[in-house]
Amino acid sequence: MTFMLLTEMAPPPGAEVLAGLRARARAARRAVFVTLSSSIALLATAQILADRAPTREQTSPLAVLSLAAFAGALPALALTQLLWGARARAVRRRERELFAVPPSARRRPLSRLALACGWAVLLLLGCTAPGQFRAAALYAVADALSWGVEAVMLLGLAAGVSFLLWWARDTLGIVARAGRPGGSPGDPWDPGRGTRPRGGAALWTGAAMAVAALLGARAHLWEPPMPIVYALLTAALVCGVVTDE
Hey, which of 93, 106, 109, 130 would disulfide with 142, CB 3.0 to 4.6 Å? Predict the structure, then answer.
């Protein structure tokens, strides 16, 4: 009954603008996780193929492909994450202006932690590139990459420590505010509420399982035949691309 009364009332000024900002933030968040899952799946598959190549001549292009996938994934993920952060901050500013209460952020620590774990996995995969070039007998390239990998690992370690300190502080603040009344109540007036397609959680679960299976194959936890590797890559890409909220 309360929900019906709310939906029959005229939306407060700015509610439709806020709904648009939320939709843009959801799209940016989806782009981040699609980029992350696709990058990990492509990189892991290229490295699996390089490991299974029977000759050095066949290993070389696959090693180059895995390096290109890693080099392209870093800026793509950084740009999409910056866009997501900017849109999320715009939503929080608008919520404070409209409702004069801090926005609810209960799931924010989990999404940030998942994203950080994805970054760590991507960096660990990328740091195996020198070994694949050595397997292809491209020793000069492997030596040059080793220096770059060491620099990337140092930067990643510093960023990881900084993230953990910042994440812990932010999480403790959210926990401390959990018992207080708050959270923006704008959802009942969201014109897109109830019209967005369902099934996003199932598709994200499928993408995560496919990526995890590829990572297990890359870590030699199991040895799937090549058709299954290609099927897992296809499933990860399709589930990520068609996922919507």
Answer: 130
